[in-house]
Write a structure and sequence with these properties.
Metallo-beta-lactamase, Chain A, 7-stranded mixed β-sheet
Length: about 260
């Protein structure tokens, strides 16, 4: 599997600041933040599936634009895989004919531009031999992370999460794990905000990584703009044996 980072920032504010989205093998998106906007029309039209971690705008904003932009160029609906609670939020608050049209009804309910597919924790979705498994996350809204498994290797993306013992119980049992992408949104001076919003800061990241028993490469995502250097310095000072690196826009990871 080939994962390309389209966006991995906790905000916007420059050409390298794109919110969370990863393109997998050209036909799957893992979240759909503002980074999706850098894809060409041809690339957008090839996306058949979007796996959503949760309903927050920095992770779902581009779903609306993909359906609107290339829905008419495609021969089948775009499938949005998400938890039932997340689907309910998308229906009520985005695709509601007030914020945006309901593309599950356009051009007709029988042949729409977009469909929803419910996911559940631990229930794997297999696409052409590739396995996508929702993992537990602890956030301010119902949320998941994902394990992506090519057969020869796995990558885990935690999604947005605070301290999460249930995640490590699962991750430590993944024998072919090669990469871990984990969020750290705030610097240590804002630990109270991290705890309130159920994100991580460097000291909390260090506490979580003590629970991690694998030797996978670790990348940090979702850093807030304006605090990137400080946050990474604090991570380096407390990272221990794993030495997490900052995920970069346009980075390619193969596994």
């Amino acid at each position: 599997m080939r994962l390309k980072v389209l966006g991995c920032s906790g905000g916007i504010g420059g050409r390298h600041m794109r919110t969370t989205s990863f393109l997998v093998d050209g036909d799957v998106l893992l979240d759909a933040g503002t980074g999706v906007g850098d894809l060409s029309l041809a690339e957008l039209s090839l996306v058949d599936h979007i796996f959503v971690t949760h309903s927050h705008l920095d992770h779902v904003s581009s779903i609306a634009f993909i359906a609107d932009t290339v829905g008419g160029m495609r021969s089948k609906p775009l499938l949005v895989h998400a938890m039932p609670e997340t689907i309910d939020t998308l229906k009520k608050h985005i695709f509601n004919w007030e914020i945006w049209p309901d593309f599950t009804q356009i051009p007709s309910p029988a042949a729409p531009f977009m469909r929803y597919e419910e996911i559940a924790l631990g229930r794997t979705v297999t696409l052409a031999g590739r396995a996508f498994t929702p993992l537990p996350a602890i956030h301010t809204v119902p949320a998941v992370g994902y394990q992506l498994d090519s057969g020869s290797g796995s990558l885990v993306f935690t999604g947005d999460t605070g301290p999460n013992d249930a995640l490590w119980e699962i991750v430590n049992g993944i024998g072919n794990l090669k990469y871990l992408i984990i969020e750290t949104a705030f610097a240590n001076k804002e630990r109270h905000l991290a705890e309130l919003s159920r994100h991580l800061c460097p000291s909390m990241l260090a506490e979580e990584l003590v629970k991690f028993e694998r030797d996978a490469e670790v990348y940090v995502t979702h850093l807030k703009p304006g605090e990137t250097e400080l946050t990474m310095q604090e991570i380096e000072e407390s990272s221990g044996r794993l030495q997490p690196r900052m995920l970069q826009n346009n980075q390619i990871i193969e596994f």
